[in-house]
Amino acid sequence: MSHEVIVYTTPTCPWCQATKEYLRAREIDFEEVDVSADPAAAQEMIEKSGQMGTPVVDIDGEVIVGFNKPEIDRLLDLN
């Protein structure tokens, strides 16, 4: 099953890197949005999550704040 995955990230965030590496290792396609370079995207992330910190992961409209492997796995049906 295909999922729509968006990762809101910043270049210096180690948890962002870990999240992206985790998704790549599981061959999950995702859109990366650098909120440090795009103020409109940063505002979108804040509106979705209520958070200013990264990473924020949007999987099919469900929002995860931080690198939460169990929740990522659950939303992507990974076991």
Description:
The protein has helices at about 15-25, 40-50, 70-75, and strands spanning about 5-10, 30-35, 55-60, 60-65. The protein is α+β, with helices and mostly antiparallel strands and about 80 residues long. It has one domain (about 5-75): Glutaredoxin (3-Layer(aba) Sandwich). The chain has a 4-stranded mixed β-sheet, sandwiched between helices. The longest helix is centred in the first third of the chain and has 12 residues, at about 15-25. About 20% of the residues are buried.
User: Helical stretch count?
Assistant: 3
CATH architecture: 3-Layer(aba) Sandwich
**What is the distance, rounded to the nearest whole angstrom, between the alpha carbons of the first and last residues?**
14 Å
β-strand amount: 15-25%
Strand line-up in the sheet with most strands: 2-1-3-4
Helical residues, percent? 25-40%
What labels would you give this structure?
single chain, 79 residues, alpha+beta, Glutaredoxin, 4-stranded mixed β-sheet, 38% helix, 22% strand, globular
Write the layout of secondary structure elements.
Layout: E1 5-9, H1 14-25, E2 31-34, H2 39-49, E3 56-59, E4 62-65, H3 69-75
Parallel strand pairs: 1-2
Antiparallel strand pairs: 1-3, 3-4
Describe this structure in a few short sentences.
Helix content is 38%, strand content 22%.
